[in-house]
Design goal:
Blueprint: H1 9-27, H2 34-44, H3 48-52, E1 57-62, H4 67-78, E2 84-86, H5 94-103, E3 109-113, H6 119-126, E4 130-133, H7 141-144, H8 147-159, E5 165-169, H9 173-179, E6 185-189, E7 209-211, E8 214-219, E9 231-234, E10 237-239, E11 245-247, H10 255-271, H11 275-283, E12 294-297, E13 300-306, H12 310-316, E14 326-329, E15 356-359, H13 363-372, E16 377-379, H14 383-388, E17 395-399, H15 401-414
Parallel strand pairs: 1-3, 1-4, 2-3, 4-5, 5-6, 6-9, 13-17, 14-15, 14-17, 15-16
Antiparallel strand pairs: 7-8, 9-10, 10-11, 12-13
Length: 415
């Protein structure tokens, strides 16, 4: 177990200053402190990340969608073994990862959500016991670039981690290609059907072939083929490596959350938690960082959902309650990606017949997209005013990253 006295003096000083800065940030209302604390610690001790993971069992969670949920599920499961430190607020850049480790230096286990572009660097520093690879799709092209570039970087990363277990979604072509370079892959079938980002093989560029009788099965003429899964998600049950089904019965809705749970549970058993114990703990989760719970506001019960990219929207749209009006809030800041052209890849046509309000800083762009989708909508840039413009009753509010964080903060303020 890592304790303060085991750390170099420079690291201890960096942690002390970082914690002070984080506390001041929270008390002055400038933020949670997770970013500024980690940033200061890294400036004072460039080796702090490596020092803070010595003697710990570290699991990293990465992918385009589902990182925060899977991290919460996995950390909850591993708490059956020992105390866990985690970046539960979704701060997944190196600063946020470092802040999470510094916040609880005595916890022997760490479950850390990591932005996929930073995973190779973080993994090199922390020597993880396991990595969970969820999915890969287009997201923030102006910052990240094409997703096939990310796949190549992750492939090189896992190839260099000889002792790390890689728990990977074998239904995702890009994830399977990357994780296939691992010495210790654990394959999980999640039932994923999103294909728009893996039409071509990441290895040779030829067309990926999908089997008509089982849309999760795929292969390429070059020899890249969907691995046979050890674990499989079947309806609402998880099939274990012995072929036994285990009902999930999650409180969280939707196929995507069941997929997150399948990967989290497989990873938990790799670290040493029994599957029944892990499932019981994951079932207790009913909300994730402000998502899914209904919050009262101005006579409405507002349910806030997060959707950041076309693949995320593909999974979120089916979760919307029939008949409830929908507010969609879209920003295009640095953390969202400055380019909102991805809106044209979202199947907003599914919202036809609903009352929809386009909102956020890019409400006008969204309103144009909804018009072409033949969705009857109005526009109100302020998301909560958009809610207030609707008749009393439940409202579904779907927002991308910065809009989601702002809406949650305001709903917390106004009650």
């Amino acid at each position: 177990m890592l304790v303060t006295r085991d750390l170099p003096l420079r690291t201890r000083f960096a942690i002390m200053v970082a914690r002070t800065a984080a506390t001041l940030s929270r008390r002055t209302g400038r933020g949670s402190g997770s970013m500024i604390g980690g940033r200061i610690a890294a400036m004072l001790d460039p080796h702090a990340l490596r020092q803070l993971t010595r003697g710990r069992t570290v699991v990293l969670v990465t992918g385009t969608n589902g990182k925060t949920t899977t991290t919460l599920m996995l950390s909850r499961a591993l708490e059956a073994l020992a105390p866990v430190t985690t970046n539960s607020d979704g701060a997944n850049m190196p600063d946020g990862v470092l802040a999470a480790l510094a916040s609880n230096i005595e916890a022997p286990l760490a479950v850390l959500e990591v932005d996929e572009t930073y995973l190779p660097w973080v993994a090199e520093q922390v020597s993880p016991a396991a990595i969970v690879l969820l999915n890969l799709s287009r997201d923030q092209l102006d910052r990240v670039g094409e997703v096939r570039k990310t796949e190549r970087e992750l492939r090189a990363c896992v190839a260099g981690l000889a002792d790390t277990i890689v728990v990977a979604n074998c239904d995702d072509v890009l994830v399977a290609s990357a994780a296939g370079a691992s010495n210790n892959p654990v394959w999980v079938s999640t039932g994923q059907t999103w294909r728009d980002d893996s039409v071509a093989c990441p290895r040779c560029g030829r067309a990926i072939r999908h089997h008509p009788r089982d849309e999760t099965r795929w292969d390429c003429a070059c020899g890249l083929t969907r691995p046979e899964p050890e674990w499989g998600l079947e309806c609402n049950s998880l099939r274990d490596p012995a072929g036994q089904p285990h009902p999930l019965e999650l409180a969280l809705p939707g196929r995507a959350n069941a997929a997150n749970a399948a990967l989290a549970l497989a990873a938990a058993t790799c670290v040493g938690v029994s599957l029944p114990q892990a499932i019981r703990r994951v079932r207790s989760i009913s909300a994730v960082a402000g998502r899914y719970q209904r919050v009262p506001h101005d006579g409405h019960a507002v349910r806030v959902l997060l959707a950041k990219n076309p693949a995320g929207w593909y999974e979120t749209l089916p979760l919307l309650e029939p008949g409830h009006p929908v507010v969609i809030a879209i920003n295009a800041r640095e953390a969202d990606g400055r380019d909102p052209s991805w809106l044209w890849d979202v199947p907003f046509e599914r919202l036809r017949g609903r009352r929809v309000v386009a909102s956020g800083e890019r409400a006008a762009d969204l309103a144009v997209r909804l018009r072409y989708a033949e969705v009857d909508s109005s526009a109100q840039p302020d998301p909560l005013r958009a809610v207030e413009s609707l008749g009393a009753g439940p409202v579904e509010l779907v927002a991308n990253y910065t809009a989601f964080r702002e809406v949650n903060a305001r709903l917390g303020d106004v009650g």
